[in-house]
Amino acid sequence: MQPYFSFESDLWREAQGAQLRINRFERVQDHPAVARGPQGAPDAHWASWPSVVHHDGGFRMWYTAIRPIPQGLDCWLVDDLIRICTAQSDDGVHWHKPDLRLVADDCGAAPCNIVPFPKRLLHMVGVVHDGKRFVAQGLFQRMLKDRHQPQSTFAAYVSDDGLHWRGEGRPATQVQHYESANSMLHARGRYWVIGQGVSPYFTLPGGRPCGRVAFAYHSLDLKQWKLERRPAYAYPVPAHAPFRYGALQVHGGIVGTDRGRIIRGFVGQMWPGAFTDDVRTTFGLAYSYDAKHWREPLPGEPLILPIEGNWEQGMIVQGCGCYARGRYTYTWYSAANGGNWWTLSRAIGVARIRRDGFAHWQVAPKQRAAVLQTDAIRLSAADRSLYLNVSASGQSLVDVEVLGLRGGRPLLAAQVRCDEVLHETLALNGLASRQRSIRLRFKLHGRAKLFGFYLGAPGQGAVYLRPWRSC
After folding, report:
1. Integer Cα distance of 289 and 172 in angstroms
2. DSSP states of 151-186 as a string?
3. Per-residue pLDDT at 395 exceeds 70
4. CB neighbours (10 Å) of residue 189?
5. Measuring CA to CA, how many Å separate 199 from each of 171, 175, 250?
6. Number of Cβ atoms within 10 Å of the Cβ of 164
7. pTM for the complete prediction?
8. Which of 89, 186, 189, 251 could potentially form a cystine with 268 if both were Cys, beta carbons 3.0 to 4.6 Å apart?
9. pLDDT digit string, tens, across residues 44-54
């Protein structure tokens, strides 16, 4: 089932009278899904930077846990207070912390849910399952003589069960400072880590200095890592503002999910302010076809917003892992109760959105209808049915036509008046066998919304929606 999203600018040849709108996640609950632990727990101060994998019928989470930080302690000297912990869930919403006792660590009355890694002092991890094993990248400090200098790098680790990890802990990067956060992606036959770089350690093309910009490393074997010299994604730097703090910047890099023909991701957004009480971070929608080059369809539009006055009023951080079941797509994030300071506490939340409904086309204001036409779409042997992710009704119809490439003659047509995330709209079996490529034309009326469409085998809607799927 191959997805085609409304937010893909390269997909659309024509968009008359249409407006592309971002959709935002909604909180599933008004309290943390993984809260901070009690006094003595490894996460008594922080539960942050979650990575989530659905495996063997349940959800597993790895997250950064920090004990309370003594007043006045330099943020570069908190290594001994940081642990990587785990939580488990059957439904992705309700989580518990297992009492693993895999390490000799005093956790008081709280469960000892610490996960040991070969390199003990990891700041955060990004975890995926590549179909054979769990794979993680872990961020840590280089331990330079001058500990007050920026000095982050990462290393790769593997595990059969997600609890017992193997790896040499050898730095994957040569630059002094690269923050990989919880980014890990397996796509296009390679492993990718898409973190943030900053000058003087990284520069933009032409040697221009930069604030926080996404740079991608990739590897075939998890041992040798290559840096893509061109940024994976960067916000424009205004000429009139200081390059470090005068503009929106990438925060923590990009976490992505391989969807086959497209890689969908979340990019961290740091709003001007850097290290202040007032700074806010969010995350936005990003996508790529090769994992090297990323774009935001609607730059600077957050997928989730802080809520002032509660536990998630400040630093909202994207999680690694996104799954869908039925009508909804779920993701996990962490949030702080204030600005960008280590002394502020953090916890982990869960949010959901219409399945694959990150953005949609609608009729633009003062327009009576919207007409959308795709560029050429090449059909595979398995593409025998067209499914729509659409919101329509009897008063707000969506007309869809399958067009031939020569002359644009309509070959098939249908009218949709329902609200479904996977509506089987047209059987493509009637197309001539030589019809290898088509275009699609949509006409939206009233309040109709088009979130995207899928090509796949017939009769697979219910089968596709039932299990949890990475998205």
Report:
1. 24
2. -EEEEEEEESSSSSEE-----S--SS--B-TT--EE
3. yes
4. 7
5. 20, 11, 13
6. 12
7. 0.95
8. 251
9. 999 999 999 99
